From TrEMBL, chain A:
<dbReference type="GO" id="GO:0098937">
    <property type="term" value="P:anterograde dendritic transport"/>
</dbReference>
<keyword id="KW-0449">Lipoprotein</keyword>
<dbReference type="GO" id="GO:0002415">
    <property type="term" value="P:immunoglobulin transcytosis in epithelial cells mediated by polymeric immunoglobulin receptor"/>
</dbReference>
<feature type="region of interest" description="Disordered">
    <location>
        <begin position="184"/>
        <end position="213"/>
    </location>
</feature>
<dbReference type="GO" id="GO:0051963">
    <property type="term" value="P:regulation of synapse assembly"/>
</dbReference>
<dbReference type="GO" id="GO:0098794">
    <property type="term" value="C:postsynapse"/>
</dbReference>
<keyword id="KW-0813">Transport</keyword>
<dbReference type="GO" id="GO:0042470">
    <property type="term" value="C:melanosome"/>
</dbReference>
<keyword id="KW-0378">Hydrolase</keyword>
From TrEMBL, chain B:
<comment type="similarity">
    <text>Belongs to the MON1/SAND family.</text>
</comment>
<feature type="domain" description="FUZ/MON1/HPS1 second Longin">
    <location>
        <begin position="310"/>
        <end position="408"/>
    </location>
</feature>
<dbReference type="Pfam" id="PF19037">
    <property type="entry name" value="Fuz_longin_2"/>
</dbReference>
<dbReference type="GO" id="GO:0006623">
    <property type="term" value="P:protein targeting to vacuole"/>
</dbReference>
<dbReference type="GO" id="GO:0009306">
    <property type="term" value="P:protein secretion"/>
</dbReference>
<dbReference type="InterPro" id="IPR043970">
    <property type="entry name" value="FUZ/MON1/HPS1_longin_3"/>
</dbReference>
<feature type="domain" description="FUZ/MON1/HPS1 third Longin">
    <location>
        <begin position="438"/>
        <end position="538"/>
    </location>
</feature>
<feature type="region of interest" description="Disordered">
    <location>
        <begin position="1"/>
        <end position="90"/>
    </location>
</feature>
<dbReference type="Pfam" id="PF19036">
    <property type="entry name" value="Fuz_longin_1"/>
</dbReference>
Length: 213, 549
């Protein structure tokens, strides 16, 4: 599934390393950037709207593996959509974010899912449906059950979060990692079946050399 | 979607001869004269220019933009036909000095007057344009709205709102309707600039099919300058969509609602309008450099130059709205307007502060038909140093990201980080460094390099309104110096609050502000001294040796 990264000098250690590409999808202003910021910096601040895409990395040292997340945060604006499909290509996981206080963003999330289903086979990508802004409980327009039911029928992970009050943000990413690693184990005996080109950390060294010329 | 820019197809700059050739630095004169050849003035690049050669202002507004002002008959009558330029300027200036001085006050008074139903203090009150005022008086909520100094609207040719600086387009759609009516009324040919003067306002229209841009301004800017700002807004929209895409959309559907596509980027346009009101870069059509020791800048530029990749066209390092270094692909020139748009993009979103951004961007003056892909990131958390790597290949994120890493590594190895940090602590210099007592402020632009330098604005221009007033005076001088029918190369004006001088030659433009106590002879003396100082400091204030890869 993911690119397995082995250290160039030492032989295979007991703990494997994986690199996963994670994309944040959803309507404008649902809190994608805030979730990424909360997760990477453990902070919340008033960010101005994302332009294009932002890229973050986060390394997790887990008991069973070292995981490097490459997180792509997209602007979610229509004018960038033609460009943004490039960003979710080759993704290992997607956070499908909506705002629990805005029903329309929930419908949009469903559309994003359709888009993803066109591009990926179910076992190719881990998708988490994320209802953000739980701190706005008073303005809630999408019930937890609605989100849950939809996620269940589509086989998605589901969680409600608040980037603002730091509610379950880490948990979403942890749930994704666990699912990715579980799938990794399932597939372990077989060589990676997919023909998609993923970014190999070793290969990026080679790329560096080739453009120094 | 428009195709990516892979090769520059139609290179606009046919006048390669305007780019100064090599070896001209040997002729650099000590004390510049008006006859100074372009390319030898202080600040001129020694190894060719970084930017597309432009005549800045004119480049935007002529020939196809040639400002043709339509004035109301009264106004035309009110203007003495045969008044010498100097007299006209003196008159304008005294008006400017008093009226700009009283700007904040006028606003206050007008707010009260509006409530109490008194007449406005403006002498032009009686000269109302019936269409506009009729509309305004109908709507009570318009009172607050009217107090803004400059409104900007963008609409489609079908009259659909695209952008409004203040307030929702929805609420203003009736106003938009009026504007469309005016546009069609005034319309003679496409791409023309039209304006109406009414009631202390200037209404300026710029039509750039399929868009119409309108400004309603109570500033003292000329039509040309307002039109120039509107064109920046137009280019700003192109930078998000490309000209090709914009046209395609409206060919498909005449009454398309462009706001859908522009959603989320209104801020970028708002920011551009704010920037233009404060930053002389836009007026000068030139770029300001961060003052930096030449050795440090060269080290930075070399590091940038070495961290190249096949798809890279421009590597730009900037701090605030000042350029630290720009390295470009050989034979590819950036246009100052495109660089201004990039500056604006960066200053309009804090999201670039975190992580690495990768965004499609069209550089409309370079090629309005396709997208580049810009990698945008800040070098260090606490440092205002932003790196912009412009690539032709949208797939190249990781390669370009690696260029950033290599650049930082080289910076470290060259040990210039400390010097850079130091320079960033004082991003502006004080006019006191020049050592001319009566000198308060100046703007000097080298035409061949497209770069300008200007000290920090200091006392007595401390308050925001005062700063804007000073910029307003420069704007006025600039418009007089570039007036298409009566351009003036030398202007000196003594006013109650300051004396001003403008000097425009083929090689440079200089705008100087003195204390009101000095004399004309003193001012001219000071100019010579100032020019010598700029020459002496030029390798710190300008980028004299731009690099390419
Ligand atoms: N109350 C609340 N506001 C949030 C939360 N997350 C984000 N926001 C706000 O929602 C707006 C949009 O957030 P942003 O992260 O830019 O959304 P994006 O467009 O999806 O990236 C901003 O004003 C955020 O401050 C949250 O969990 N709770
Ligand atoms: Mg965002």
């Amino acid at each position: 599934m993911a690119q397995m990264v082995t250290s160039g000098t030492s032989p295979e250690g007991p703990r494997p390393s994986y690199m996963y590409k994670v994309v944040l999808l959803g309507s404008m202003s649902v809190g994608k950037s805030s979730l990424a910021y909360r997760y990477v910096k453990n902070d919340f601040r008033e960010l101005l709207p994302t332009v294009g895409c932002s890229f973050f990395t986060q390394v997790l040292e887990l008991d069973e593996a070292t995981v490097k997340f490459e997180i792509w945060d997209t602007a979610g604006q229509e004018k960038y959509q033609s460009v943004c499909h490039l960003y979710y290509r080759d993704a290992h996981a997607a956070l499908l974010v909506y705002d629990i206080a805005n029903k329309q963003t929930f419908s949009r999330a469903k559309l994003w899912l359709e888009e993803l289903e066109k591009k990926f086979l179910p076992d190719e990508i881990v998708i988490a449906l994320v209802g953000n802004k739980t701190d706005l409980a008073a303005e809630r327009e999408v019930t937890t059950e609605e989100g849950e039911d939809f996620a269940r029928t589509k086989g998605l992970l589901f969680m409600e979060t608040s980037a603002k009050s730091n509610h379950q943000v880490n948990d979403v990413f942890m749930a994704i990692v666990q699912e990715l690693l579980r799938r990794e184990k399932e597939k372990a005996p077989r060589p990676s079946p997919h023909g998609r080109s993923t970014v190999d950390l070793r290969a990026s060294g080679a790329r560096t050399r080739c453009c120094r010329s | 979607m428009a195709a990516d820019v892979h090769k520059k197809k139609s290179w606009e700059v046919s006048n390669g001869s305007l780019v100064p050739g090599d070896g001209q630095h040997t002729e650099r004169s000590e004390s510049p004269t008006p006859g100074l050849a372009q390319g030898t003035e202080p600040g001129a690049g020694q190894e060719g220019a970084m930017f597309v050669h432009t005549r800045s202002y004119e480049d935007l507004t002529s020939p196809e933009d040639g400002a043709a002002a339509v004035r109301s008959p009264e106004e035309r009558r009110g203007e003495p036909a045969e008044q010498s330029s100097m007299e006209q300027i003196s008159k304008d200036f005294s008006e400017l000095s008093t009226q700009l001085t009283g700007m904040a006050l006028d606003l206050d008074e007008e707010m009260r007057a509006g409530k109490e139903g008194k007449l406005e203090p403006s002498p032009q009150t009686t000269r109302r344009d019936s269409v506009l005022s009729g509309k305004e008086e109908e709507d009570v909520t318009m009172d607050a709205w009217r107090l803004h100094r400059k409104h900007v609207f963008v609409l489609s040719e079908a009259g659909k709102p695209v952008y409004s600086r203040y307030g929702s387009e929805e609420a203003l759609s009736s106003t938009m309707g009026v504007m469309m009516a005016l546009v069609s009324f005034l319309e003679a040919e496409k791409n023309a600039i039209r304006s109406i003067h009414a009631d202390g306002y200037k209404v300026v229209f710029v039509r750039r099919s399929p868009l119409v841009l309108v400004a309603v301004a109570r500033t003292r800017q000329s039509e040309q300058e307002i039109a120039h700002e509107l064109l920046y807004i137009y280019y700003q929209i192109l930078s998000l969509l490309t000209w090709t895409q914009l046209n395609h959309i409206f060919q498909q559907k005449q009454n398309y609602d462009l706001r859908r596509l522009l959603a989320g980027s209104e801020r970028i346009t708002d920011n551009l309008l704010d920037l233009m009101a404060h930053d002389p870069s836009f007026l000068m059509g030139a770029v300001r450099c961060l003052p930096l020791a030449a050795s440090v800048r060269d080290a930075v530029s070399s590091s940038l130059q070495q961290a190249k990749a096949k798809s890279l066209v421009f590597s730009i390092l900037l701090s605030g709205n000042q350029l630290v270094s720009l390295v470009r692909k050989k034979d590819q020139f950036l246009h100052p307007i495109d660089l201004h748009l990039l500056f604006n993009l960066i200053s309009s979103s804090s999201s670039f502060r975190e992580g690495e951004a990768w965004t499609p961007i069209c550089l409309p003056k370079f090629n309005s038909s396709g997208f580049f892909h810009a990698h945008i990131s800040y070098l260090e958390q606490e440092m205002d140093l932003c790196l912009l790597l412009v690539s032709t290949d949208r797939e190249d994120f990781f390669t370009v990201s690696d260029c950033k890493r290599r650049f930082q590594e080289r910076l470290r190895r060259r040990g210039v980080q400390h010097a850079l940090h130091e320079a960033l602590r004082t991003p502006f210099y004080s006019v006191a460094q020049v050592g001319i007592p009566d000198l308060r402020h100046f703007i000097y632009k080298s035409k061949s390099s497209g770069l300008f330098t200007s000290p920090e604005i200091e006392a007595p221009y401390v308050q925001e309104e005062e700063k804007e007033r000073l910029l307003g005076l420069y704007q006025y001088l600039h418009s007089r110096a570039h007036n298409s029918s009566r351009p003036l190369k030398n202007i000196y004006f003594t006013g109650p609050r300051e004396n001003l001088l403008a000097w425009v030659t083929n090689a440079f433009e200089l705008y100087v502000c003195y204390s009101p106590l000095g004399t004309k002879a003193g001012a001219i003396n000071a100019v010579n001294k100032l020019m010598k100082w700029i020459r002496k400091e030029e390798d710190r204030l300008f980028i004299l040796t731009p690099q390419t890869y």
